[in-house]
Amino acid sequence: MLTTLLIPFRLLINFTFALVSTAVIGAMVILVGLPKLLLPIPAVQRVLSTWANAVFRLWGYAMSALFRLTQPMRWHIDGDSELHRDRWYMIMANHRSWVDILVLMHLACRNMPMPRFFLKQPLIWIPIVGLGCWTLDMPFMKRYSREQIAKNPKLQGKDIETTRKKCQKFRHIPTTVINFCEGTRFTPEKHAKRHSSFQHLLPPKAGGTAFALQIMGNQFDAILDITIVYPDDKKPAVWQLLSGQLRDVYVNVETLPVTEDLIGDYFADEAFKAHFQDWMNKRWLRKDEIINRVRAGFFN
User: Fold this and answer.
1) Buried b (16+ CB within 10 A) or exposed e, 196-229
2) Which residue spans within the chain are E strands per DSSP?
3) In this structure, what CATH number is given to the domain that contains residue 39?
4) What is the pTM of this model?
5) What stretches of 176-250 show up as alpha helix (H) in DSSP?
6) Could you tell me the pLDDT band of residue 153, with boundaries at 50, 70 and 90?
7) For the chain, what is the mean pLDDT?
8) Out of 131-135, 262-266, 269-273, which region has the weakest mean confidence (pLDDT)?
9) Nearest Cα to Cα of residue 136 among 62, 31, 221
10) Residue ranges making up the domain that contains 198
11) How far apart are CA 93 and CA 84, in angstroms?
12) 82 pLDDT exceeds 80?
C-alpha cells in the first residue's frame, strides 16, 4: 500500500531529474561542440568533439544514477566485462524499450567509449536533444519511400552516404556504435505482424549492421552482442523506471571478434548477403535462448 502511495512522488522526482539533467548536460554539449561550425579545421574539430564527448559522459553517469534515485537497484550483468575506453566497439542489442538506451549508457559511462546511435531524422527537432546529438556527430537517417525514389532517383542511397560520412568521423575518437538490429521496439503486435520465428524478438535487419562493418570493420576491436531483459514483460519499462518499480535489470554481454567473413558488400554481393543474414539469425537464436533462460530461472 505504501509503495503504491509513493508512486506519484517517485514519478515526479525521476522525471524531473531526467529532464533537468538532460537539458543542462545537453546544453553543455552544444556549447562545447557547436564552435565546430565556425572553425572548419579538422584538427580543431577533433579537439572540440573530444571535449563534447567528455561532457556527454556526464549524461551517462546521470542516467546511471536515475536507476537508483528512488529505489534500490540490482544490476545482473553476465558475460565479458574486460572493455576499455580507448577502443572501438559495435553493439548489437535487442530493443524492448527506450530504457534500453539508458541501460547501454550505464554500461558505457564506466568502461567503454561513449556510444553513438543511428537516429531517425525527425528526432533532430527535439529541443536540445536533437542539436546535442547532431553536435556529437550522430547520424540522422532519413528514410525514403519507393515512390519518392521513383520521382527523384538521386535519393537512392542518400541515407547510406550520410552514414558513411558520419562514420568516417568516428575514426578519430574511440566510439561505441550502437545498432538496435530489430529496427524498432518489440511489441506483441509487431511480433505477430512480422510473423517472427523468435519467441521474444523481432527478426533482425542485417543491412545496417553489415554496412557499419563494411565502413569501420577493420577499426572495430570487437562486436558486443548485448541482450537486455526486464523482470516484468507486461508493464512498460519506462513506467517501471520512472515510478520507482524497476528493481532488477539483466544484461548479457558476449564479445565477438570481427572476422573477415563479416566484412563485405551487403547490398551488391548476394552470396555475402545470404551469409550475413544467416549469421545474424544465429545470433538472434542465441539471444532467444538467453531470454528464455533468464525468464525461466532468474526472474521466477
Assistant:
1) bebebbbbbbbbbbbbbbbbbbeebbbbbbbbbb
2) 74-79, 89-93, 115-117, 119-120, 140-141, 176-180, 222-229, 248-256
3) 3.40.1130
4) 0.88
5) 188-193, 206-216, 237-242
6) low
7) 86
8) 131-135
9) 31
10) 2-298
11) 19
12) no
The pLDDT assigned to 69 comes to 92
Looking at beta carbons, which pairs linking 162-170 to residues 24 or more positions away fall under 8 Å? 163/118, 163/139, 163/211, 163/212, 163/215, 164/215, 166/137, 166/138, 166/139, 167/139, 167/212, 167/215, 167/216, 168/215, 169/49, 169/137, 170/88, 170/116, 170/137, 170/216, 170/219
Q: Residue 24 carries which side chain, given as an amino acid letter?
A: V
**Cell for 125?**
527537432
CB-CB contact of 264 with 214 (8 Å): yes
Local structure of residue 295 (DSSP, 8 states): I
Number of structural domains (the chain) is 1
The burial class, CB within 10 Å (0-12 / 13-18 / 19+), for 41 is exposed
Mean pLDDT of 5-30: 91
Is the per-residue pLDDT at 299 higher than 80? no
**Whether the Cβ atoms of residue 110 and residue 243 lie closer than 8 Å to each other:** no
Q: HSE, CB side, 13 Å, CA atoms: give it for residue 154.
A: 1
